[in-house]
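SAMPLE LOG
Freezer: B-3
Tube label: C17
Construct: single chain, 197 aa
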Amino acid sequence: MSNKQILLEQIRADILTNNICPDLAKTATNLVMGDGNIDADIVFIGEAPGKKEDEQGLPFVGAAGKFLDKMLVSAGLNRSDMYITNIVKYRPPDNRDPLLEEKEAFWPYLVRQLDVIQPKIVVTLGRHSMEYFLPDQKISVIHGQPTRVAFDATEIVVVPLYHPAAALYNGSLRATLIDDFIQLPKIIEILAKEKEK
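STRUCTURE (predicted):
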């Protein structure tokens, strides 16, 4: 087990030990931590697990996850190269939106995940995860635009995107989300060039 894997396992253990969001834990089947490459340049952050995610213990495996996979392919990216997680790690009952206090309870653990993985880019999927990095912003205004954010003694680039689930139910968002996704490799390229300077 690599050092990063040990640290990520410790985060999982701490959530269980500290009994984070016990009401959610009671109704959930699994604690859904995250999945993918722990050395990823890009981390995708959704809001909370859905029904399929809760059953399988993995993020983005339901309909929204399949759509996410399609968009990754359209952008020439491999899911296996990414790390995917959510702010809230338990499924809210009936797929309701996560509550502010639930997001706040899980936020320190998400910060720790990012500290371990150290991505170049954080892609927020939906407004719930965007609000933490870019408060007081509207996703309809800033979607797809990379923004440098001071984060936990470092700086990361945050790219807010619409949530794939929203695009499944809204055709006009679908095209927007695909267009934004296709820009991700270009953003990575620009960041790599900046680093060379």
